[in-house]
Design brief:
399 residues, 13% strand, alpha/beta, binds (3S,4R)-3-hydroxy-2-oxopiperidin-4-yl beta-D-xylopyranoside, 14 helices, single chain, eight-stranded parallel beta barrel
Length: 399
């Protein structure tokens, strides 16, 4: 399946360099270098979506709407590589519900139509979060009104796309140990005004609004082997157990997986956590994978190796868990990523760089999919997707 680039004369140099730098970085002898550490130029035939589908996974990305409408190369790449999409911002409260009586569905409608036209699934993100709230809401909310406001919002937004979504991030980032509560819940506007039951209410309302979507709790900071992440994993687990015990309709956990090159140790704590999540009967999605490499020297080669190592090490643990069904990166190219800042204009923490060239992140993802043990797993329905032809553009409308 992996496509080799016969013209790449840098191959042997890069392979040797890879092994040497890995050795320098890890302090131990690198395992046999893999030919696939050489960047490839992917096509529809060697796409991440096909490699993922071979191993019972969906692959996709968060989508920024402006480039989806205006940048043909960005759009082409998404069609070529992805079997699932999630809007980066356009379904968040501030964008989709900018005034009390006004919903703005234009961008979200465009994304969902684009995905359907191209046989790509969509995750909704998100219904209840402490961020991206419009001022009209934060300035007018009261304990009397909060439950109604949250309920109506979920009914309107999830209801509009009912039966068309793969899943919804119903509640996002509700655990925040720094707030000092015994249950670990974030002291958010929702908690302050509704109480801790807001989470249960949100899931129940979402199930009624869209019975077909997989309802997901989405969280960050659960990845590495630090005490901080372990404590957060325990708090999330406690919350998930509470929801399941009370028969709340929740189907999946979303691991945001905003990794960094500085704290990149993934192992037993994460593995145990995923097993416990599976034992609760929940599916698992990696929802926002990217690697922050801003602390590294500017050299792209050095960054690529550290980023690829973080992705490989992380996915080695995560993909060994059979109930992981999807991996989405938080952007497909660093051209439009939140990782790209004026101080750090050329980050390497996504599958394609600012010039749409594949990075070693791409190889790490593809190889991690390929390495997944699939014994005993039934084929994923994404396998039956019709492979996309590159660039079947039409004038006007949704591409
Ligand atoms: C981020 C977007 O990428 C930015 O464009 C926006 O300005 C802020 O939100 N966790 C989440 C995402 O669940 O919604 C966030 O997205 C990144 C962190």
């Amino acid at each position: 399946m992996p496509v080799q680039d016969p013209n790449d004369s840098r191959r042997s140099f890069l392979v040797g360099a890879t092994a040497l730098v890995m050795q320098a970085m890890t302090g131990c002898k690198a395992s046999a270098p893999r030919h696939s550490m050489v960047p490839v130029h992917p096509s529809a035939d060697s796409s991440l979506r096909l490699h993922a589908a071979e191993h019972r996974l969906l692959y996709g990305t968060a989508v920024a709407m402006h480039p989806l409408r205006t940048d043909a190369e960005y759009t082409r790449l998404i069609k070529e590589q992805c079997s699932i999409l999630v809007p980066e911002n356009c379904m968040k409260w501030a964008e989709i519900h900018p005034k009390p009586e006004q919903y703005n569905f234009e961008e979200a409608d465009y994304l969902v139509a684009f995905a359907e036209k191209n046989h790509i699934k969509v995750r909704g993100h998100n219904l209840v979060w402490h961020k991206s709230l419009p001022v009209w809401l934060t300035s007018s909310i009261s304990p009397e009104m909060a439950r109604t406001m949250m309920t109506e919002h979920i009914q309107e937004v999830a209801g509009r796309y009912s039966n068309r979504m793969h899943s919804w991030d119903v509640v996002n980032e509700a655990i925040h140990l720094e707030d000092g509560r015994a249950d670990g819940y974030r002291d958010s506007l929702w908690l302050k005004n509704i109480g801790p039951d807001y989470i249960e209410i949100a899931f129940q309302v979402a199930r009624d609004a869209d019975p077909a979507a997989l309802l997901t709790y989405n969280e960050y900071g659960l990845d590495n082997e630090s005490n901080e992440h372990e404590a957060k994993r325990q708090a999330v687990l406690q919350m998930l157990r509470r929801l399941k015990t009370r028969n709340i309709p929740i189907d999946a956990l979303g691991l945001q997986a905003h990794l960094s090159t500085t704290h990149a140790t993934y192992g037993e704590g994460l593995r145990r956590f995923l097993t416990s999540v599976r034992e609760l009967g929940l599916q698992i999605f990696v929802t926002e994978l990217d690697v922050n490499d801003e602390k590294m020297p500017a050299d792209p080669g050095q960054r690529d190796l550290a980023v690829a190592k973080a992705v490989t090490d992380y996915l080695k643990v995560v993909l060994s868990e059979r109930d992981v069904r999807a991996v989405l990166t938080w952007g497909i190219s660093t051209r439009y990523s939140w990782l790209r800042t004026p101080q750090d204009p050329n980050p390497r923490g996504l599958p394609f760089d600012t010039q749409y060239q594949p990075t070693l992140f791409f190889n790490a993802l593809r190889d991690s999919f390929d390495d997944r043990a699939t014994q005993g797993l039934e084929p994923h329905s994404a396998r039956t997707f019709v492979p996309l032809l590159p660039s079947t553009r039409e004038k006007g409308g949704v591409e």
